[in-house]
Each structure stands twice: as C-alpha cells, then as structure tokens.
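Exam prep: given the inputs below (a chain plus flavin-adenine dinucleotide), describe the expected output before reading on.
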Amino acid sequence: MEITIVGAGVSGLTTGIRLLQQGWKVRIISKEFSPDTVSDVAAAWWYPFLVEPVEKTNQWSIQTFNELVRLRDNEGVECISMRLGREYLEQECELPGWSFNIPHFRILNQNEIIRGYEFGWELEAPVIEMNLYMPWLLSKFRTLGGSIESNEFDSIEEVPGEFIVNCSGLGARLLSNDEEVIPVRGQVVYIKQDPGFGRYDQRPESLTYTIPRRDVTVLGGTAQKGDWDETIRKKDTEDILSKCEVFWPDLDRQNIVGSAVGLRPSRYELRLELEIINNKKVIHNYGHGGAGVTLSWGCADEVVKLLKVNMLI
Ligand SMILES: Cc1cc2nc3c(=O)[nH]c(=O)nc-3n(C[C@H](O)[C@H](O)[C@H](O)COP(=O)(O)OP(=O)(O)OC[C@H]3O[C@@H](n4cnc5c(N)ncnc54)[C@H](O)[C@@H]3O)c2cc1C
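Solution:
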C-alpha cells in the first residue's frame, strides 16, 4: 500500500521516514524542498513554543526530545547538539508539563535572573542545525526507499492516492481551505559568536532569544501574527539586536554574518486528525507554529498510529 505525503518540510520528511520504517511504500510530493521551506529557517531549539493543545504537545515534544538524543548518540547525527538554555519570566508560574520529563531542568536562583525579570528556569535540550539536518532527513528518506516528486496542488482532492498525509504547513490554508492557519512571521540574525548558554524570553510580545549552535548563534526574534512579508526589515534587525544585547551584553555586532525570515504555520491548535474526503483517507499534520522541529518525531509517530487504526475501516 502506498501513502502520499504532501510537503517536504520537517513534518513531511520525518513522517515519511517513520512510515517507511513501518514497511509502507511512501512518496512525498511537494512544491518546495530544502533549502526553500520554512523548516530551513527554524532556529532550531527544542522548545514547545506557540503551539497548542498542550496536553498533546507535551507528549509529542518529549517523544521528539528522546528521538533527537537517540539520533545524536546512536546514529551519529552531529548537527544535533545538547545545549543549556535559560528562560526568563516576568513572574513565577506553573512549571511546563514537559519539564518533569527531561533530564536537566532546574529553577534559576535569584542571582541568575537578569534585571527586569522575576523568575526563570534552565534546561538542557537539543539544538539542531537545519541547514544540515534537512538534507540528512531527505537522504534518510531516500535511503529507506522513499520517492520524491515535485508538484503543487490547489486542493487536497487533487492529490493522487488513497492514503494521504497533509504536511503542507501554511499551505494548508489553500490546500484544505483552512483559514485558521495563519503566518506568524519570524526574523532572525546569525552571529559567529557563542554566548555560552542560550537566553530566552518566549512571550510572543517580547520574544528574545540567543540560540547557540556549532556554526552560528541565532538571534531572535519576532512573532508577527498575520504578517506575510518575507523580506528582511532593518527595523526588526535593530529591535532583535537591542533586545539580545540586554540579555547578552558581550554581543559584538561585528560578528554578524546574516539574517533570515520565515512564516511559522500557526493555528489555534495543531491539526493532527483523520478526515475522509471522497473516499480518500487524509491525515492532517500541520499547524505546528513555532515548534515544528520540537514536535516532529512525536507527530510522525501519531500519524503512524492513526494510519494503523484507520486502515482497517
Ligand atoms: C524564525 C523561525 C524560527 C523558528 N525556530 C524554531 C525552533 O527553534 N524550534 C522549532 O521547533 N521550530 C521553530 N520554528 C518553527 C518551524 O520552523 C515550523 O513549525 C516548521 O518548520 C513547520 O514545518 P512543516 O514541515 O509543517 O512546514 P514547512 O516547513 O512550511 O513545509 C511545508 C511543505 O509543504 C509544501 N506545500 C505547501 N503547500 C503546498 C501545495 N499546495 N502543494 C504542494 N506542496 C505544498 C511546501 O512546499 C513545503 O515543502 C521556527 C520558525 C521560524 C520562522
């Protein structure tokens, strides 16, 4: 039996690999491929950000955390590193559900919290260099026997095959006529300087982050809802740098090496469910907001579960 996946971002490729590993025949059909997907712009720090519903995303993010660690430790995927990061918060709050399931998580001492914040925590989590990880996923998919085709569809009804997985990200607005999917624009700056540990304020209105990778540190950010502009804006660059300088006073602007923009595929909640359209079984896997990498393996496993259950109907 063949399964057709629409989309070659992190969701489509990861889902494709999982389905092939289960013994299915899989083809991915997509309009864009790496390095031209939103997934290529992801920073990419493991952290459930800007995505709902938390009871499900907590579980999928933990499954992904464990798989990323396994890929690094057992399959030698070197573009995944473990890094420390500190999240600063305006006030004390309930700890996130996922925090109880990762090996290193602790509340910050008062003297570790920067001025203007009241509370915070530290975690160690995977950081992924997407410029290497996306080609690795594609190559893994091909090695396992998956096939790739280039095409663009106007609606899900046009997609060939009886079993379809819809991993079209923001494209689901058109493909599934789903106006709940909206862009949340993200701009980042790349700098060749290591801050030692990452620093974060993950509230969308004051979003600030310094994500240390082996190649560069990614500075962010913006979370501009409903904004379709994919050009780099000078004002945003300046805002990002001024916010990051508060968190990381040693930041040296002379080390800046680039910037990028991407539109996060946001939805009031991620859509991962079966829909039957003209006798075709369509599993939707889109709307991952700011956490598509963080949720990728957990969501792929959920697609496998849904397919197994629904193939029998
Ligand atoms: C600046 C920025 C920083 C980010 N940082 C992080 C981070 O640190 N951690 C994290 O987990 N996430 C992060 N994200 C979010 C992450 O990038 C997304 O959640 C993720 O990339 C979504 O992946 P996807 O595969 O669902 O969608 P996409 O990568 O957008 O892929 C969608 C695919 O579908 C195809 N497609 C769409 N429409 C059609 C059509 N009609 N016909 C055929 N093909 C179609 C596209 O061509 C593409 O191949 C960040 C995003 C941005 C912009």
